[in-house]
Amino acid sequence: MAYLEWDQNYSVGLNEIDEQHKKFISLINSLYDAMSVGQSKAVLDDLIRQLSEYAIYHFHLEEKYMQDFNYPEFEEHKKLHESFTQKIEQFKNEYYSGKLLLSVEIITYMKDWLLHHILIADYKFSDLFKEKGII
After folding, report:
1. Residue 102, domain extent
2. How far apart are CA 37 and CA 12, in angstroms?
3. In a domain, 46, yes or no
4. Cα(31)–Cα(107) distance, integer angstroms
5. For the purposes of burial, counting CB atoms within 10 Å of the CB of 51, is it exposed (0-12), middle (13-18) or buried (19 or more)?
6. Could you tell me the CATH number of the domain that includes residue 80?
7. For the segment 55-111, what is each residue's pLDDT rounded down to a tens digit?
8. Taking the model in full, what pTM does it have?
9. By the 8 A CB rule, do 25 and 113 touch?
10. Cα angle at 123 between 91 and 67, to 5 degrees?
11. Cα–chain-centroid distance for residue 16?
């Protein structure tokens, strides 16, 4: 069973963004699966790299949509994205310095951040997209 499963309640109404959120869930589940069989250290380096790269890609798309439609809370939302990327950088630094139990910290942070971000912050711009007739 997956650690975190996509739920239609997480949808922001834009398929492209929803699919990217599903990718984040997949990355979280990959770490969980590895942890379940005692292999988290084997996948952690690659997972942190993927999270970092994918976050930049995903946040760029969200921010482009927000800018294109003059989202009034753009700067606040962008700061949330910056906070996330800084946290992933911190995880990367901790990993390379040999911190133990980092996989537990990452998976907890990712799940909490992702669900909170989708259900609160991303839902706010979803309303703007509805107003503009995008969704």
Report:
1. 12-131
2. 33
3. yes
4. 7
5. buried
6. 1.20.120.50
7. 999 999 999 999 998 999 999 999 999 999 999 999 989 988 888 778 899 999 999
8. 0.89
9. no
10. 80
11. 14
